[in-house]
Amino acid sequence: MLDGEKWAQVFRVETGQNSDKAKAKNNKTREPTIESEGDLWKEAPPEKKKKKARERTEEDDSAMDPDEEGGWGADVERDSWGDEERIENSESLIPDRKEKKEIPEVQVKEEKAEKPAPESDQAQQIDQKKEVLPEEDSSSKPFAADEIQKATAESLAKESQKDAGKILMPGGTVGDLLATWQQRRMHLDQRDFDLARQDLASFVKLSSQLEIRNMKLHALVLLREAEMAYRTENVEKAKELYAQAARIAPDLPAVHRAQAWFLFSENPLQLGGIVSALARTSSAALANPLWVDRTLVNAVAGIFLALGLCAALFILVQFFLCVRLFFHDFHHLFPQGVAYLQTGLLALLVLLAPFMFRAGLMLVLIMWALIAWMYQHTRERVISLALLLILAVSPFVLHWVTSMVQIPKTIASDRLQVERGFAKDSHLVRLKSNLVEQPEDFATMATLGSYYKRIGELGLAQQFLEQAIKVKPDSALLHNNLGNIFFLKNELNQAVRHYDRATKLSPDRVEAYQNLSRVYSRQANLNKARDHREMAVRLDANRVRELRKRAESGWARDVVADISIPTAWLLKRNEQRTAPQKISAQIWRQLGGLGTADTYRFAGLVVVALFGLAFALRRKISLSSACGRCGHAVCHRCSSELRGDSLCGQCFHAFQQSDKVDTASRIAKEIQSRQHGRRKERLARIITFVVPGVGQLIKNRPLRGVLFLSITCFVLIQLLLGRGVMVGPTELDPGIDWWKWVPLGLVFVGFYAWSIINVLKEE
Fold this sequence. Notes:
Layout: H1 4-17, H2 19-28, H3 46-62, H4 71-81, H5 84-88, H6 97-101, H7 105-114, H8 122-136, H9 145-165, H10 174-189, H11 193-209, H12 216-231, H13 235-248, H14 253-266, H15 271-287, H16 289-331, H17 340-356, H18 361-373, H19 378-392, H20 394-405, H21 411-420, H22 425-437, H23 442-454, H24 458-471, H25 476-488, H26 492-505, H27 510-522, H28 526-539, H29 541-551, H30 556-559, H31 567-571, H32 578-591, H33 597-617, E1 625-626, E2 633-634, H34 649-656, H35 663-690, H36 694-698, H37 702-721, H38 738-760
Antiparallel strand pairs: 1-2
Helix pairs in contact: 1-9, 3-8, 4-9, 10-11, 12-13, 13-14, 14-15, 16-17, 16-18, 16-19, 16-20, 16-37, 17-18, 18-19, 20-32, 21-22, 21-23, 23-24, 24-25, 25-26, 25-27, 26-27, 27-28, 28-29, 34-35, 35-38, 37-38
């Protein structure tokens, strides 16, 4: 097949040679001159009537509109592609003439008068030319067959060129887009709101042509303007600004959430629009991988920090409940002549040794948990094991959180911003610099190729995609998208080669088959176009219908279908990042004190061994327990006559062997035990108002205490973190996040009231 210029050149030469014949035909068929008004009503002779009727019939049968948009091949493509159901039923692409004969004659004439229909088969067109051309000039010699084929080929070439020229490239560059925004700002400063509205419309239109989906900062500016307009009761302007913000940043959840609030403020009863806006908010949030990562990091970090704080408070409370017993048992490790004050000071030095040696908070908690473990009951031990397990995985969670927080500062975020957001020059420079260091980074090449294709620089797009195919030749995505570049450059044979390769690599993708049907239709190869069209419809008819509807716009971004770059390519979780490892190691040295995450597993084994050893030796070393009446140590080494672990020696003699104790001593011990109970109850009630859950721990209700304490710690951590450890770049509002704090506040108030009622309730 000849290229477009040769076909056009041949067509012009042929048209020039036939110009004399056309003049002769026009002179022969020229109507009589009308000299007066009566000539308008003069009836023509019957012979002329018959001749004119025959010429009109022949002209209607052979008429072809040279200005028909899309050309012969494009018209067949348009008429046949719009009916997927007919393709699914394997009906012919060419309309049946018998069906046309059933249409009333008046309707047929009206349609022909309005717009002549182009023919849909090359052979049929040639036959009609053979019948028409001799009738137009009976004195001229009929065309030869090769001349007819040549003229038909010239016509097809001309229509193909017109169809190729129908593809619309972006009407500007990224620089023009930014200049339009600056011009809008200038018009706003000059209080020329009509021009500012026109500038915004031009800005939105150009951003759509360049396929820049998420201009987040610009959308936030429009949201602020919409809020100000709504406060001044300019509802129509606010509604328009909300709509424009959604067009330039459809993947920004804040835009749809603001629309939902606007609809609710206007009419709380229009639940359909409000629910739809909230659904778009959720969809936009879930479609953004960085938002998902940020939400996941904030949730995991918040929950983990809350549980860690809960574990620390639980261990701290349990330790202070048994610290008196620890000092008593520590005294028994020394000979009887040693004073209690001396052993107490030594025990205090042992407890404070991790602080003095800067061992870290984690080692202090583990040591205090080990001390409390020897004096706890079964329920407290189970809870301690669960909380210690949370502390054990803390270095690994810390490393994961720091690695996820570093994503916005990596090449992965640059790729994501270029592909799905507004690409700045800094992003492009970093990506190209990364290709110098990592020449086999096919994901970056694919991202840059997609970007330059969107802005109309097809040469650069072709270079990046070809380099990516050299690195990853088995990617259907790269072959399909490179084929689209060749299609837009009108290099159809190269496009077919890459589309075929894409269909072989990924037979279940619709895009490659759809693109093949388009390129074959452009080449007037209707059989292959129909076959690939049917294959695409069999795979996903809805997707084919969507692609066809988009292609009707004529823009280069929609004429052929790209395969979107997957999130796994853009983020590439397996990329090595040394900064998170250094950050997590530094934080762990300040808090953990037991090496890094790699060495902590060995320290964890040592801690588990110590806890097992303490549990096994508890009975053998005869540890003391707390008295149920006065709180003193129940020690069999001090009082060998004790029969259990519930009463100390004084309470045992005062209440179990009352005949051996005088009445005054018994009454004094009773007063002492009641004062201890009141102090314990008062402390539990007071501290519950400050930290819900601790009162239950003091009153030996560990399960409820841990539940209330965990809720309290979670709310406290959320209050300290604010918007989280990982804040999005578009979260610029310093106000209160009511969407977060209203449900969280309701939950906290409910548990807070439950905790107070529970601790005030007398046993």
